Amino acid sequence: MKLLLVVACALIDKDGRVLIAQRPEGKGMAGLWEFPGGKVEAGERPEETLIRELDEELGITVKEPCLAPLTFASFPYDDFHLLMPLYVCRRWDGVVRAKEHSALKWVRPQNLRDYPMPPADEPLIPALIDLVGSAAVGV
Predict the structure, then answer these.
(1) What's the pLDDT tens digit per position in 11-31?
(2) What Cα–Cα distance (Å) separates residue 7 from each residue in 18, 19, 86?
(3) Nearest of 95, 10, 12, 7 to residue 47 by alpha carbon
């Protein structure tokens, strides 16, 4: 089975909310919500992938020191096995906008389960709740 390395990023705003993006029509798992990111290309480091993907998908500039690894997901899909490190980013330049997704939403970590996500994204939620969820309760 082919191993696919995809990297994702949880952008966290000053209010402790996490950005999720809705997959557009015409793509696999259309309509589901995900953390922005993408496939790691040959010769590319995961951090380089995120810097490129966040610019392409959201129009923002992220510097490598602002990316912190948090956790990862390992998930067997039917035709490949997905390995997905999740990074956290709290600082970026520019205004987040949907360039490749149907919609974007800023969501409190404890509410992420209210949005249907690909199965590989779901196991990432508890780490985000642990990281920022308790700090955002009562806000």
Answers:
(1) 999 999 999 999 998 888 889
(2) 16, 15, 6
(3) 7
Q: Which two tokens stand for residue 123?
A: 């196991």
Phi-psi category of residue 35: left, alpha or beta, with phi > 0 → left and psi -120 to 50 → alpha: beta
Residue type, 2: K
129: left (phi over 0), alpha (psi -120 to 50) or beta: alpha
Give the CATH number for residue 49. Answer: 3.90.79.10
Residues 34-78: tens digit of each pLDDT: 999 999 999 999 999 999 999 999 999 999 999 999 999 999 999
Residue with tokens 């987040």: 96
pTM of the model: 0.92
- How confident is residue 138, by pLDDT bands cut at 50, 70 and 90? very low
Only one residue has tokens 């067997």, namely 76
Rounded Cα–Cα distance for residues 129 and 34 (Å): 16
Please state the domain count of the chain.
Answer: 1
Token match 């790691």: residue?
Answer: 40
Closest CA to 91 of 70, 60, 69: 60
